[in-house]
Amino acid sequence: MSRTVLREALRTLTSKGLIESRPRVGTRVRPRHAWNLLDVDVLDWYSRVAEPMQFALKLQEMREMIEPYAAGLAAASHSDETFGALAAAHAAMAGARNVDEWVRADLQFHLSVLIACSNELLIPLGTLIERTLEAQLRLNAKRADVFNASLAEHTAVFEAIRDRDAHAARDAMTRLLSVTRARIEA
After folding, report:
1. What is the tens place of the pLDDT at every residue in 91-113?
2. What number of H helices and E strands is found in the chain?
3. 119: burial class by Cβ within 10 Å (0-12, 13-18, 19+)?
4. In order of start, what are the domains of the chain with their CATH numbers?
C-alpha cells in the first residue's frame, strides 16, 4: 500500500471520529463514545460488530424518540407530493405478497413519514438509518406470525396523517413502535 493511500485512509477514519493522530504520540483508536455514529459508514460498520440485541434496542430507542413526533409533523404539514409517496408505500404494504416486498414497502413508508414532516433536519436521519432499519424491519417481519402482521398499525398512522390529525398520528406511531419493540424483545 502506498503512503498516499494510507494517509487518505487515516484521514477518512479521523474525519469519522474513529482515530486521532498526534505528533510524537502516534495514531490511536478513540473511545467509542467519541465515534461519529451518525455517519452512514460508521453506523453500518458498528451494526455489524455490535451485539445484535443491544444494537436493535438502541436503534429502536432512537426511532421511538423521533418517529412519533415526525408523524405528527407529517400530519400537520405534508404536501400532496409527499403524501402521495406515503400513500404509495402504504398501498405497496397492503399489496405485499412476501417478506421482501413487505420490507421494501415498510422501509419506504417510514422514510416517507420523515420526508412528509417537512423538516430538513429530520429527513437525513432516514438516509442515515436506512440500511440498519431495513435489517430490523426484515427481522421483525420474520418474527411475526405473518409478515404483514402490523398492517393495521401502519394503516392507523397513514389515516391519521391523511386526516391531518397530528395527535392521532403521534399516538398511532407510538403504538406501532411498541409492537416493534415487543417483537425485538421476544
Report:
1. 999 999 988 899 899 999 999 99
2. 8, 2
3. middle
4. 3-34 (no CATH), 40-185 (1.20.120.530)
